[in-house]
Amino acid sequence: MSVTNQKWILKERPNGLVKKSDFDLIEEEITDIKSGEILVKNSYLSFDPTQRMWLTDLPGYLPPVQIDEVVRAGGVGEVVKSKNDDYKVGDLVMGLVGWQQYCVSSCKPEERLRIVPNIVPMPTLLNVLGTTGITAYYGLIELGKPKKGETVLISGAAGATGSVAAQIAKIHGCKVIGIAGGEKKCGWLKEECGIDHVIDYKNSDVKVELPKIATEGIDIYFDNVGGPLLEDVIWYININARILLCGAISSYTSNDVSPGPMNLFNLIIKRATMQGFLVLDYLPKAENAINDISAWLMEGKLKHIEDIQEGLENCPDTLNRLFTGKNYGKQLLKI
Amino acid sequence: MSVTNQKWILKERPNGLVKKSDFDLIEEEITDIKSGEILVKNSYLSFDPTQRMWLTDLPGYLPPVQIDEVVRAGGVGEVVKSKNDDYKVGDLVMGLVGWQQYCVSSCKPEERLRIVPNIVPMPTLLNVLGTTGITAYYGLIELGKPKKGETVLISGAAGATGSVAAQIAKIHGCKVIGIAGGEKKCGWLKEECGIDHVIDYKNSDVKVELPKIATEGIDIYFDNVGGPLLEDVIWYININARILLCGAISSYTSNDVSPGPMNLFNLIIKRATMQGFLVLDYLPKAENAINDISAWLMEGKLKHIEDIQEGLENCPDTLNRLFTGKNYGKQLLKI
User: Fold this and answer.
1) pLDDT one-digit tens code per residue, A7-41
2) B3-127+305-334: what fold?
3) Of B61, B262, B273, the CB nearest to A273
4) For chain B, what is the total number of helices (H) and then of strands (E)?
5) Which chain B positions have a beta carbon within 8 Å of A277's beta carbon?
6) How many angstroms from the chain centroid is the CA of residue B209?
7) Helices first, then strands: H and E counts in chain A
8) What are the Cα distances from residue B274, in Å, to A222, A275, B266?
C-alpha cells in the first residue's frame, strides 16, 4: 500500500499574520510504515491560537516547529494501516496530526494518538469534547473555583475555549460577563448561551463599559487575550480574585511586545492570584471533564459552534481567521 | 491625670520621599479618657514601607490617612490609664499607635491593641515576633509552599520581612538567593543568616548576575520590591513557580508608575502563580507563626537586626530611611 501525502512544511518563521509563502505545500510518497507505527488519514484539523506560537522560535511549552518540519496541529483521523497492536484499521484517533492528509505516528508517548469513540460528530470531538473543552473545564473549575453568585469575566468569550468557560461559569451559578467582537458573536453569547452581559469590544469601549457592568467587581477573570485589557481588569478585581491566564491571543501575531499591567500592586491590596495554566497538565484526568461536559451537552446546557473551512490548501488562511476575529466558533478545517 | 501629647499630623500629601513640611508636629492636652478607652504611652514605633502608601490618597487595603489626622504607624507601648476591663495599667500593648507619644484607643475592633508578654525586648516584638515575622512566615510557608531543594529568590532580602523569609526558606532546606543593597547588608545575609547566594544590586547588574546564579531556575520568588526586577525574574521561573507579591517598595515614592512585566505569558508556559497577600488576613492565626518563630529564635536559626532611631521629632526622616536603603535591619524609632 502506498499513498501520496500532501503536507504543509514551515519554510520561514512568519511575521504577524501568516502568509502562504511562509510555508510550502509539498507531496511525498508513503510506501510503507515500520513496526509499531500506524498510518492515519486525517479528516479534520483543529486551529488554535497556540499553533501560531509554535511557529516562532521563542521558548514555549513545546519545542518550536523547525524549518522543513510539518506544521504542528491537532486533529482527528482514521487509522488506515496499523503495525501496532494497540490500534486497528478503522479506529478513530485524535492528537497532533499536523497540517497534512496522512500522518504516520510512531505511537511513542510524544506522538501518541488517542482512540476516540466513533459516536459523536468529529467537529464536536475536537471542540467541547477535546482539549478546548478540557482547557475551559479545568481552568475555570479547578483553578478558578467559581462560587455561586460570583462575577466571572471572560475575554475571547465567543471563542472556542471562552464560550465553554462562560457556560460552565453559568452552570455554577455565577454572574457572567463576556467580552467578544461583533454583534453576531455577542448575540449568540447572550441569546443562545445565556451569558448575563456581553461587551462588544468592536463597537464599544471596554474600559468605559466594564465598570458600568461589573458593578460588584470581578471575582474571576478568565483571560484568553492578554495585553492592555488585563490592566483594565485588574482595577476592578475583588478581594481574593483569581485571574486565570489561558492565552494571550492579542500578542501572538505582534512583533512589538506590549508592556505588562502597571497595576500589579492591586494584586497585593486584593490578595488576588494570577495563574497561568496549560491543558497538557490536565490530560491525564481528562475523563472527568469529558464526562461532565457530555452530560451538560445532553442536557442542552452547553452550546457550541464549529466554523468549518475546507481543503488542505486553505490551512494558512484558516489559521489567520483566529487572529482577525473572522472565526465564528471553534475553528476547524475539513480535509 | 492629664498628659501633653506630641503628635505628627498629615498636612499635605507627600511627593516622593516625605519632607518634614508635609506634616505638623503638634501638641495636645489629654485630660481624660472615656469609658471603654485606654491611654497608652508609646515606647517604640515601627516603620514599614506600607506606611508611605497610607499617606497617598490611592485606594488601598486601609483607608488613606486623612489631612490633619495623626500619621498611622504600628508600635508598642504601655497602658498608663484604663477604663476598659480587658486592660490594666502596666500592660504592654502592640498595634496601630501612630506617630505620637500617647495613644488613646477606643479598644473597638478597628483600633484594638493586643496585649503582648513583657518578656522579650520590644524591638524583637515589633520585628520577627510582630507583623514583620508573621508576613514572612505565612507568605513563604502557606503561599510559597517551599520544598526541600527548591530555589527561592528574595528581593529586599536584608529588609525586615525579606530576611525572615530568606531564613525560613533555608530552614525548609531550600537554596536561597537574596538580592540586597551594599556590602554590609549582603555580608550579613551570607555570613550571619547563611543565605546561599547574595546579589548586591548596588554593585552589580542583577540582570546579568541572576541567570549565572539561578542556574536551576527559580521556584519561589518572594518579591518585596516590584518594578522592573519582576520582569527579569519571570524569564527564569521554573514550571509551577510561585511568585509572592509582598510589597513593591520600588514604586512607593515614585510618581511615575513603571510599566508592568511584558512577559506574563511565561506564567502560562510555566504554569506559574503570582499571588498578592497581606498580613492582615493571617493575624487571626498569628499564634502558629509566633510559636515557630520563637522556637527558631531560641535555636539560633533566625537572626534579626533592628535599626533603632530615637526621638519623635525624627519620624519623617526615619520613614525615608526605608526608601533610601539607609536602614540596616528592621526600622524602629524609640520615643
Assistant:
1) 999 999 999 999 999 999 999 999 999 999 999 99
2) Quinone Oxidoreductase; Chain A, domain 1 (3.90.180)
3) B273
4) 10, 15
5) 268, 271
6) 26
7) 10, 15
8) 15, 6, 11
